[in-house]
Design goal:
Blueprint lengths: L3 H12 L3 H13 L17 H9 L9 H7 L2 H44 L17 H19 L3 H9 L3 H7 L5 H11 L4 H9 L2 H8 L4 H27 L19
Helix pairs in contact: 1-12, 2-12, 5-6, 5-8, 6-7, 11-12
């Protein structure tokens, strides 16, 4: 039976002497939009109210036509073209976003999990994250994408999305250990591992709320330093539930052979 304090203490022990390497890794992944607690930064541009008025009502180029005059000259065909153009841009943005998530973010998340699992035993090189791009990379993409889509569809009804998120919490870790797992098997084994553990995992995640509040006082910068600790704790959770799965004969060493160190260039 695991406790939150035990997992967190084990995470601290695993990070001892390896924290800054893990911090750098999490920071680099944050720049790609990968992280559970790392802040996501966006560049915004603020205009004073008088500048906005100038844009709305002031002259355009060097002529006397205002924005309202130009808008009035647009006919229905122009408006239809602009609408179609906007829809096309939106669809292109959606496709690019999905490709970014499916082919980069999800696999790197799996690679990050492998790094933290290997780091439990010995210092792991940062390039461990990139080993996921070796065969069977496309299987990792497929399984991660299908699981993400199921959770996303469930999120439309809120409760099913939250439930499925915790049911399939261990899928990225299972793929990190065995990237050959099929979608059905990865989802099934994750559900079995999370049986009776979903609420406890939710409470474990919630236990970081104090650190999040403190990090908010630093405008989110503190979240960068929290991320390695959080990921190391989640790795400890997987290790415990993995042992539980073995004890219940839910899996064996042929399916989950452990996190053996290997060179990304091998």
């Amino acid at each position: 039976m695991w406790t939150r304090s035990l997992l967190k203490q084990n995470a601290k022990d695993a990070l001892r002497g390896r924290y800054w390497r893990s911090f750098l890794l999490c920071f680099l992944l944050t720049l790609l939009g990968i992280g559970d607690y790392s802040p996501q930064y966006r560049v915004t541009y603020d205009l004073a109210s008088d500048e906005l008025d100038n844009l709305r009502y002031g002259p355009v180029w060097e002529g006397n036509a205002s924005v309202q005059d130009l808008w009035a000259e647009l006919n229905d065909s122009n408006l239809l073209f602009l609408l179609q153009f906007g829809v096309v841009l939106l669809l292109i943005g959606v496709v690019i976003g999905l490709c970014w998530a499916f082919f980069l973010v999800n696999p790197l998340t799996v690679g990050r999990n492998r790094y933290f699992m290997e780091s439990r035993q010995a210092p792991a090189p940062m390039k461990t994250v990139l080993t996921i791009f070796r065969p069977p990379y496309m299987n990792v993409v497929k399984v991660s994408a299908l699981v993400s889509l199921k959770i996303a569809l469930g999120s439309l009804l809120i409760i099913p999305g939250i439930y499925w998120q915790y049911c399939y919490w261990m899928v990225p870790y299972l793929l990190a250990e065995n990237p050959y797992l099929t979608t059905g098997r990865a989802m099934e084994l994750s559900r079995q591992m999370m049986e009776g553990e979903k609420l406890r995992t939710f409470v474990l995640v919630l236990s970081f709320i104090g650190w999040i509040v403190l990090s908010a006082l630093t405008l989110g910068i503190g979240l960068l330093f929290l991320e390695p600790y959080y990921q190391a704790t989640m790795a400890e959770l997987y290790a415990v539930l993995r042992s539980k799965a073995f004890s219940l004969n839910l899996t064996d060493e042929n399916e989950l052979c452990g996190f053996v160190r290997h060179d990304a260039g091998a």
